[in-house]
């Protein structure tokens, strides 16, 4: 494993050792911190509750929210489900129309599909070819019965950053709720909910050096946003999300977000220089296409299509690199990335795309080795490709009439 | 002196070996199991192993019947809401009056949406009447949801028999088994239970991990959408370390089952008898002949349970009065009310729940600590005279 170079930080990140160390204290008997925070009759419970509330402040601080606006969940997928279904069902009397993008994460898209089966109507907007939302088209799509717009802050595949301030102004002026999936942006892009008019925001711990199986949902209090709970029970999280609070996970997310807040600026600078080094390294290769806007983009993401190379063969050839094609949640399928297709990329280019995501523990040596490997493997694969040969001979592949077998 | 933790029905300490098994999955084997590369694949194999460990503990026929969730509450919500979606024409649910809030609150919510909720009553020992149950089973019922053991009293329900009756009537059967898994042996493959909820943190694995057992070929509709994880039945990146921890905890629970049934049971009995021998006007609630080996719920008449607990906490003993979820409330618990425990006693219940880490020395310390605490509080109670209850005729009923 040590030989494999991990460049898949957008799929998941290692838990920062400082975070893991803190989490462990809340598990075993040693520190007396393993209690149930809902236990009100003894010190084990009180200590656990204190830890949960400290972490709530740490998470709130990263986005300048009030701790009371943070609801713990089991991950961004649950946060997305709670935000979208919860708001849709609560405000169903007001209207039954929602708007989202075709390039959203499956957690949003599948939730919207379920709502469609339940009698809601959803408009799926294509972004512009650079991956960013077209504000005029969004404004035109908002109807009197629209109750919610859900647009992710940073796209998981191409890393482009949506202008949530502009979108928020639009939705607020139209009286429509705005949900943002911020799983990929927390700790990478500064977020301030006192200036951005976001109503609901989903977070994941494991994309930000915290543990898997932990997330949060920001729910605005002023103006107040109401939701229908998706899990009923003991009334935890003021009834919005029942279930025993996983103290060590919460502590882990709190510590991870605290570190993110402290180190974001310096880390972004370091990661950006590594990403740019990688970009420069692969730019020399012929027929390479960068997917998504490079300006409005998180510093750790590079998404590249290598024309005339087949996606899976490329993944196989680059076994020494842990990278992904499309998001991990869809990578088991061999379909070309629906995100790149939505940007107008051809099937071939979408198919030959690789997402490199760099992180806290990536080194310059690793990036250099990755560049070396990419050059070597692309050359080798193209050597075997009849299409590459035809391209080099100047044949216009778009106009070739292929015979059926 | 180390504090004594007797609130294991609320949550449990995680075993050191469980934490040791989890650690590598934080910082070394951190891949996303959905990723196709080496980091992801290795983690995927570890998850498969954990799934088998849980399968063994449940006595399930297939490892694919184990769906990992975030907690028992999620499992309960998933099970009940799935049945309602799978059988949209069926508008009735059968449950009991003494379920955990996870099921009770959900049912109250569903009642407001127009579903009919049948809540089976219990007698004064917390036992169900199966004739009442039989009469309610019909093709209008979408699901039966009955807890295997009550969290407050430890009383066991005959869920295997009830599942057979449901099955014969063509109704899905779900059981909230968070209090029994790891404490009594399970053999789901030879039962008619369709769905079962498990919570990791009740059996010495970490919080934030649960399981929904889903019998193969049971009609199912997922709760969380947005990913292919758990074969499309539960979306969301897996809580890898939690799952690994639960697997190891399941294996340890299997190994400790005998201990639970003998040593823990004896310690519980010793505790209960030790206290009752010294304290007048106190009695165990629930069904002492048919309950979990680790639980003793004692009603101390004419005083407040919460007051007992706070004084016990001062001498380093942690116990509780009911479910942690209703903890802090001054109302007597719904379980005590359902059993018709007199108001003056229902207010003074204390639940002691042991674990395999509980020692004989700890139990002796508790037996010594409880009587003076009760005596001290009774001195302050207007309902208590110098030697006994102030008035024999004092018998208020529930407000």
What's the short version?
Chain A is an alpha/beta fold. Helices cover 38% and strands 13% of the residues of chain A.
What does this 3D model show about the protein?
The complex is a heterodimer of chains A (405) and B (399). Chain A has 405 residues and is α/β, with parallel strands linked by helices. Chain A is built from twelve helices and twelve strands. Chain A has a seven-stranded mixed sheet with strand order 2-8-7-6-5-3-4, sandwiched between helices. Chain A has a three-stranded antiparallel sheet with strand order 9-10-12. Chain A starts with a strand and ends in a 13-residue tail after the last helix. The model of chain A has no long low-confidence stretch (mean pLDDT 93). Chain B is α/β, with parallel strands linked by helices. Chain B folds into two domains: 4-9 and 256-394, Aspartate Aminotransferase, domain 1, CATH 3.90.1150; 16-253, Type I PLP-dependent aspartate aminotransferase-like (Major domain) (Aspartate Aminotransferase, domain 2), CATH 3.40.640.10. Helices cover 40% and strands 13% of the residues of chain B. Chain B has helices at 16-22, 24-27, 38-58, 72-86, 101-112, 130-136, 159-168, 229-232, 240-278, 305-314, 334-338, 343-346, 360-380; strands at 4-5, 66-69, 92-96, 116-120, 141-145, 172-176, 195-199, 210-214, 282-284, 295-300, 317-318, 349-353. A seven-stranded mixed sheet of chain B has the order 2-8-7-6-5-3-4, sandwiched between helices. A three-stranded antiparallel sheet of chain B has the order 9-10-12. In chain B, strands 1-11 form a two-stranded parallel ribbon. In chain B, β5 (141-145), α7 (159-168) and β6 form a beta-alpha-beta unit. In chain B, α1 runs antiparallel to α9, α3 runs parallel beside α9 and α9 packs across α13. The longest helix of chain B is centred in the middle third of the chain and has 39 residues, at 240-278. Mean pLDDT of chain B is 94; it is low at 393-399. Classes of the chains: A alpha/beta (405), B alpha/beta (399). The interface between A and B is large, with 80 and 82 residues.
């Amino acid at each position: 494993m040590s030989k494999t170079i991990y460049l898949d930080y957008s799929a998941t990140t290692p838990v920062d050792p400082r975070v893991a160390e803190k989490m462990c204290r809340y598990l075993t008997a040693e520190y007396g911190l393993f209690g149930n925070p809902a236990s009100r009759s003894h010190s084990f419970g009180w200590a656990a509750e204190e830890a949960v509330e400290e972490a709530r402040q740490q998470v709130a601080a990263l986005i300048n929210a009030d701790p009371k606006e943070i609801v713990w969940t089991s991950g961004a997928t649950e946060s997305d489900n709670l935000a979208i279904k919860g708001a849709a069902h609560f405000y169903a009397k007001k209207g039954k129309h929602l708007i989202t993008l075709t390039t959203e994460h499956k957690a949003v898209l599948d939730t919207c599909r379920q709502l469609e089966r339940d009698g809601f109507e959803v408009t799926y907007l294509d972004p512009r070819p650079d991956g960013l939302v077209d504000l005029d088209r969004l404004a035109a799509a908002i109807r009197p019965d629209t109750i919610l717009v859900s647009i992710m802050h940073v796209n998981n595949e191409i890393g482009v950053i949506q202008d949530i301030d502009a979108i928020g102004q639009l939705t607020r002026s139209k009286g429509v709720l705005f949900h943002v999936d911020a799983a990929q942006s927390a700790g990478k892009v500064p977020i301030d909910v006192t200036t951005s008019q976001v109503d609901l925001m989903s977070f994941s711990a494991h994309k930000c050096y915290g543990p898997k199986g932990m997330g949060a949902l920001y729910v605005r209090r002023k103006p107040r946003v109401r939701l229908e709970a998706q899990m009923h029970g003991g009334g935890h999280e003021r009834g919005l999300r029942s279930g025993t609070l996983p103290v060590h996970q919460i502590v882990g997310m709190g510590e991870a977000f605290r570190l993110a807040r402290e180190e974001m600026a310096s880390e972004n600078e370091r990661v950006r220089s590594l990403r740019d080094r990688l970009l420069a390294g692969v730019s020399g290769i012929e027929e390479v296409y960068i997917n998504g806007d490079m300006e409005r983009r998180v510093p750790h993401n590079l998404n590249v299509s290598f024309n005339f190379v087949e996606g899976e063969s490329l993944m196989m050839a680059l076994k020494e690199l842990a990278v992904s094609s499309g998001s991990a949640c869809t990578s088991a399928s061999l379909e070309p990335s629906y995100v790149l297709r939505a940007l107008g990329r051809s099937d071939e280019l979408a198919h030959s795309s690789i997402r490199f995501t760099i992180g806290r523990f990536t080194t310059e040596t690793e990036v250099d080795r990755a560049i070396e490997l990419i050059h070597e493997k692309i050359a080798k694969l193209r050597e075997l490709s009849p299409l590459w040969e035809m391209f080099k001979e100047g044949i216009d592949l778009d106009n070739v009439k292929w015979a059926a077998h | 002196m180390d504090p004594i933790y007797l609130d294991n029905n609320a949550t449990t300490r995680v075993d050191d070996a469980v934490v040791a098994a989890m650690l590598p999955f934080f910082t070394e084997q951190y891949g996303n199991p959905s990723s196709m590369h080496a980091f992801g694949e290795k983690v995927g194999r570890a998850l498969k192993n954990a799934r088998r460990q849980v399968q063994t503990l449940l006595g399930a026929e297939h490892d694919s019947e184990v769906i990992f969730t975030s907690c028992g509450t999620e499992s309960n919500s998933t099970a009940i809401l799935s049945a309602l979606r799978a059988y949209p024409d069926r508008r009735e649910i059968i449950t009991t009056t003494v379920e955990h809030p996870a099921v009770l609150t959900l049912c109250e919510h569903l009642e407001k949406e127009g579903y009919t909720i049948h809540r089976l009553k219990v007698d004064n020992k917390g036992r169900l009447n199966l004739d009442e149950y039989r009469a309610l089973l019909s093709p209008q019922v979408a699901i039966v949801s009955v807890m295997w053991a009550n969290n407050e009293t430890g009383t066991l329900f005959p869920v295997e028999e009830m599942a057979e009756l449901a099955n014969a009537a063509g109704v899905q059967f779900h059981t909230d088994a968070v209090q029994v898994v790891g404490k009594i042996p399970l053999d789901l493959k030879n039962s008619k239970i369709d769905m079962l909820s498990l919570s990791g943190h009740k059996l010495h694995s970490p919080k934030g991990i649960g399981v929904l057992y889903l019998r193969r070929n049971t009609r199912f509709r997922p709760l969380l959408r947005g990913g292919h994880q758990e074969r499309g039945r539960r979306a969301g990146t897996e809580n890898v370390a939690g799952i690994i921890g639960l697997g190891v905890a399941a294996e340890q629970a299997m190994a400790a089952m005998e201990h639970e049934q003998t040593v823990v049971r004896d310690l519980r009995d010793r505790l209960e008898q030790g206290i009752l021998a010294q304290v007048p006007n106190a009695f165990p609630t629930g069904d002492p002949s048919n309950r979990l080996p680790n639980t003793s719920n004692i009603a101390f008449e004419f005083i407040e349970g919460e007051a007992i607990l706070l004084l016990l906490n001062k001498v380093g003993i942690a116990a509780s009065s009911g479910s942690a979820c209703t903890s802090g409330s001054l109302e007597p618990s719904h379980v005590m009310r359902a059993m018709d425990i007199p108001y003056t006693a229902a207010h003074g219940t204390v639940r002691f729940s042991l674990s395999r880490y509980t020692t004989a020395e700890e139990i002796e310390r508790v037996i010594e600590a409880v009587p003076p605490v009760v005596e001290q509080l009774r001195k302050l109670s207007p309902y208590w005279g110098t030697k006994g209850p102030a008035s024999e005729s004092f018998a208020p009923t529930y407000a």
